[in-house]
Structures are given as C-alpha cells and as structure tokens.
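Handout, page 2. Input:
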Amino acid sequence: MRVPKLFLALAFLVPAVFARANPVPNLDVAKSCRDARDFGMNDAQQTFKNCMLDEQEAKQQLVQKWSQFKPSARRSCIPDAPAPSYVEMLTCLEMNQQTLMPYSEGGGGPPASGAFPHDSPSPRPAPSPEPRGMQGL
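Output:
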C-alpha cells in the first residue's frame, strides 16, 4: 500500500511546488510611488511613504492569495512598466475573480430570472417624461 500513500503525498506537494515556481513577481513600485508624490494633496514625502506602505500590504495579500488566482488571470494582471503596482495587480486579480462568481455570491452576471418578485419595485426608476429642470415650468 505504499503506492497510494506516495500518490497522496505527491498530490499535495505538486501544487505547492508549482506555486513556489510561479511566485508573485517582484515589481519596482518605488517608481510609481515617486510619481504619486506629484499627485499628493499635502506633503510629498508622506504621500510617498503611504504609497510604499500600501504597496507592501498589497504584496503581502498577493503572496497569501496567489495560489487562489488562475494562472491566466495572473499573467493578464501583471502590470506593465513604467509604473508597476502591487495594488493595481491585486485589484485586477480580485475583479477578475469576482466576475467569475455567480451573481448570488456577489459576482458579475445578470440576476437570475425571478430574482425580483412581482410586487417589488423595478430596480431602476421609471424615466421622467420631461427633461430634468423642465418639470413644472
């Protein structure tokens, strides 16, 4: 019975090895944070520091969640130069993941038929017969 145990061990090790073989890419986020200084409202140094903290936190989240994202999504969400960002990559991957979820779980897609009972209001208000600002004139 060594074969089934070996097979089980390999079944658990192969995904872990594959995940290590394709780690979160290393990005030079300092450039994008330096660029962000120009858009900060107050102190440019504080804007840079906050940006770097956001990038560090996003990378940590990516490391934790990396194996949950499809390889095709990982490839398509790697940001291009000149200003790569882990925040941008994480947002892209999470948005991609949510569009694949069924509507009832908060993902994209149209509501299932019968999702709105007959006596409930329409999800959109009825259009006004007159242009805005012209009502009551």
